[in-house]
Amino acid sequence: MSIRGLKKKQPKTFKVKIITVDAEMEFSCEMKWKGKDLFDLVCRALGLRETWFFGLQYTVKGMFTWLKMDKKVLDQEIPKEDPISFHFLAKFYPEKVEEELLQEITQHLFFLQVKKQILDEEIYCSPEATVLLASYAVQAKYGDYDPNFHEPGFLAHDELLPKRVLRQYQLTAEMWEEKITAWYAEHRGIARDEAEMNYLKIAQDLEMYGVNYFPIAQNKNHTDLLLGVDAKGIHIYSINNRFSPNKSFEWSSIRNISCSEKELTIKPLDKKAEVFKFFSSQLKVNKLIFQLCIGNHDLFMRRRKVDSIEIQQMKAQAREEKARKKMENQRLAREKQLREEAERAKEELERRLFQLEDEARQANEALLRSQEAAELLAEKAQIAEEEAKLLAQNAAEAEQERQRLEITALKSKEEKRLMEQKMREAELIAVKLVKESDRRAKEAEHLKQDLHEAREAERKAKQKLLDITRLNYPHMAKYPQYSPGDSRDANFDKGSTKLDLKDIDLKRLSFEIERERLDYLEKSRKFEDRLKELKSEIHALKLEEKQAGLYC
Predict the structure, then answer these.
(1) What region holds the FERM domain (predicted)?
(2) Which end of the chain, N or C, is more open, meaning fewer C-beta atoms within 10 Å of its C-beta?
(3) pTM of the full structure
(4) If 0-12 CB within 10 Å is exposed, 13-18 middle and 19+ buried, where does residue 126 land?
């Protein structure tokens, strides 16, 4: 047998891409694989044991459907692409998440899917509840809030609120972050799985949680209703209201559900109750509704039965895991607390050390300042001593100057008094001179007048004498050589003597007047010189007084 014959033939395969809420995976599948083979492969890859909640979803002609587990993958109406894409999603929802979701991976996948449905507005949530849910999502992602690490703006790239809520309120991103952070800070100490569970516990109470909606009609012509299928039963809604159902059929009250082409019939357990029939737009929609009803009803019945060994083991493992995680979280919390206390103590010691170092530094600086101040004070004392000596010297000089100024002032006062006295004397002399001048002027005027009268009298006397001479001695004109002096001396001795005396007196008087006038002029000149000297002395005294006032 050849070696080639020993080799097994490699089976033909095709590629598939599995898309979870937060990841993508690719697998090679054998051509003969059924849907369950591929589904089990994905669950093993994820480590998922609670497989009954999930399924593989794909879209054909704009309509989503689920991969059938009992048929070959390639025999189903799947999209013709390479690789073939499937979405691994939750197909059925638990009634009570805290009791039914045992594995952490199951809980995490549900958390991611429900969170996406709320953000995509497939599940309606009030604005207040969305903020609280967002705070749990932040706790699950970032852990405990730390204001030193989680600075403003750390949620800028996270999608946490539906766009409808953002449009409804005119708030900035910073305001929304502040509201979310206020709740987030209160979740301190909550682990990731606890935060995700708290998120799901709030979400499971929302009206649209876990409901698959389909348009239906009560007759073949109108599509005026919505049919919803969830973990509790079947609900009929009006087309514009997905919150409050008009009619509900719980799984416990349904006896039978049948499907024939586009018609689906719900028979209540009470035989007297009316049978509900409705029509869907397509046979595929009818089949999809029927599959969801069967799956949800099976889970409903399983919850009310005794758990299988597998479920009991899973629950026991889940309890042990939760207890272990709780102890681990407590240990971590204790270690974290001790670490925080140690860090606080360290910070306190560092702060105290820094404070002591700062106090030592301040003390050294104070000592240096004290030394510098002492040196400055010594210098200031020396300078003050020198200034005191200088001031004493200046005081002595000032005292001497004061005494000199007092003496100068006394001298100035005395000189001023003498000068005033001299001025008064000069004024008196001037007055006397003026009076004397006036008197002399009057005397001179009288003397001039007397001189004028005397000359006039002399002239008249001479004229009279000539006239007399001509009358008594007419022959003397013919004999001019004759001198009548003797005859005059003889005949007019008395008159001639008088005239000569009078001429002598007039000349003497004129001489005296001229002499007195010259004396007067000399005295006036001397008086003016004396006045000038007095004025100069007075001016000098005034300058000295001004200078003395400046020194004082």
Answers:
(1) 14-304
(2) N
(3) 0.62
(4) exposed
